[in-house]
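Box 3.1. Reading complex inputs
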Amino acid sequence: MAKKVLIVYAHQSSGSFNAAAKNAAVEVLTAQGCIVDVSDLYAMGFKATATAEDIKGEVKNAENFCYLEESKLAWEQGKLSADIMEEQSKLTVADLIIFQFPMYWFSVPAILKGWIDRVLTNGFAFSQEKRYSQGIFKDKKAMLSFTTGSLESMFSPTGINGDMNVTLWPLQNGILHYCGFQVLAPQIFWAPSSAVAEDRKSMLESWRTRLQGLLEEKPLSFISLDCFDDKAFQLKPEVHEKHASKEFGLTVGIHLNKPLPPHSQMKAGC
Amino acid sequence: MAKKVLIVYAHQSSGSFNAAAKNAAVEVLTAQGCIVDVSDLYAMGFKATATAEDIKGEVKNAENFCYLEESKLAWEQGKLSADIMEEQSKLTVADLIIFQFPMYWFSVPAILKGWIDRVLTNGFAFSQEKRYSQGIFKDKKAMLSFTTGSLESMFSPTGINGDMNVTLWPLQNGILHYCGFQVLAPQIFWAPSSAVAEDRKSMLESWRTRLQGLLEEKPLSFISLDCFDDKAFQLKPEVHEKHASKEFGLTVGIHLNKPLPPHSQMKAGC
């Protein structure tokens, strides 16, 4: 059966490098027989802010409105606003989600954070029991594809912005892996706006080449949920002990006070 | 002269724990003689998305709109939209900025990311020369004050969400320190929604106590800009060598492939 791909795209301009990267993904994946859908957030005027208007009708507790709880309830009762439900439908059928964006302030632009805050509803995208390796979307893949303003050297463990693996951890672990997604290595376009036209072209060519095998790629490594106890959610003593003599921590975040495993948020198999 | 404090506050409800934390800050700091201003983002209906409407009149390049460049130009020409200019005025006079928010997806809510994306304009808040320890706001202090859904144990180097120091790095280094702010230790309210009323009360009491000495606190440690060369922005060989025999990396991001310095994004003097 044809694979379904959703591209969540956040750039204001159709003339941008991000637009070209998005168009390349649509073309190459469609040519492979995939069915590709694009959520063009700026063009859609996508609402970024999580408010009571996201819920149709009365909220449960207007005095002390808690978005996490109210949106969960609204999802259960089919009362989420139409724009959220539409995005959730696209996500439900997708096998792979590609987030295409320019990095703003070491993270995603606010309009894309808004998609994350509003669409990945409590209950729909995660629950206390269903998260990380047991997450709701564990049969789906997801990846970040983004441009930076900084050069690659600046995002190294000796560079001024620090290791990109650290910057990616909250996004790739805290959002994508949290919902269970198998996280494919990020596609990072280093400072295309500082590059000459020829280099920009070759960045896109290399993305096109990667896209051809993207759906068969091995995902990044994270830690299985059953390595943690279910009260304090600490690494089980036996897992900790087993890893005691190893040189590196398990992941960027679960580093056990050891050096971070190199490239673990950038390359599969690290 | 009276110190000026700006609280950038992002919660939907005046009955929330975040509202109580914000109110405590207003009260205690005002009682100390500070002049406190609050940007209540949801109440203001603050626009979160970075679009061409943020610029009055014609943009320079509509075909290939680049927010970073266009907003810089608009700032230089006094053509930024009124809501952005208003926030920039508040920031300009402030000695301390407190960001008060519930953590959403290992980061700030989209509405607050929108404030960051739109208000910290290229030119106004940073430039290629003026950033990090030479940053434009180096005479100001800033801090994060936030609630989590997760317990503290879950955000440790052996916990399921990984070390909170890692999660804070992109926010505290990539946004606050990038603009030059002296970054005060974060105020983290661990899972108040899971706590009993008495514990929530004591969390607020401890915040009130901290607020009394807040303006005299020593900031977190980062690395001086002159430790990096000015081409690839890599740590200078002499700094690297000087640190070679040390047990820990310099910071969370500039970790030199050593273990991360413990608590360095959580406590001053680490």
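In summary: Chain B has eight helices and six strands.
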